[in-house]
Amino acid sequence: MTAMDRPLIEIMITVSLLCISSLLISSFAAQSWGVAVTMRELAAEEALRSVHSSALSAALEGNLSGTAVTVIIDFPYEVLINATPPVITASVAGVSREAPSLIEIRGLCSGTVFNITGLQNGTALISPAGTARP
């Protein structure tokens, strides 16, 4: 090993370590991005199921009682609801989920708090209730 070999070996080791660290960082970033996307997908699915089940409950109660029944539903994040028969769609942070509705549900609104009104005829209306949080 000559005196010239040592600096060359140090440079090669340094470059190798930089390559390995960049690979680890990019791998971690890709995994973090995947987790973030999965969390948004789960939030959209939860919003869809919550709004849909609340609308079904309110419509059934309104039909059975003969008066309009309002349910308030609150989310910790911004949700866009688009209910046009026969489909209801919930969107959270650019991720949308949709499902067919068993009853007629109508409404197009965005926010964190929603009024879901079940009517006497067994249908439901969705309207914004505000975004205030204590």
Total discrete domains: 1
Low-confidence stretches: none
Shape: rod-shaped
Structural class: alpha+beta
- Helix/strand order: HEEEEE
Amino-to-carboxy terminus distance: 71 Å
Beta-strand segment tally = 5
Report the biggest beta sheet as strand number plus sense, adding barrel if it closes. 5 strands, antiparallel
Helix proportion: 40-55%
How much of the polypeptide forms β-strand, as a percent range?
35-45%
* Gyration radius, rounded: 26 Å
How many helices? The count is 1
Write out the strand line-up for the largest beta sheet, numbering strands in chain order: 3-2-1-4-5
Mean pLDDT value: 85
Which keywords apply here?
134 residues; 5-stranded antiparallel beta sheet; 1 helix; rod-shaped
Q: Care to give the gist of this entry?
A:
The chain is an alpha+beta fold and 134 residues long.
Question: Your description of this structure?
Answer:
It contains 1 helix and 5 strands; from the N terminus they run αβββββ. With 134 residues, it is an alpha+beta fold. It has one domain. The mean pLDDT is 85.
Summarize the topology.
Elements lengths: L4 H61 L3 E16 L2 E6 L2 E6 L4 E14 L5 E7 L4
Antiparallel strand pairs: 1-2, 1-4, 2-3, 4-5
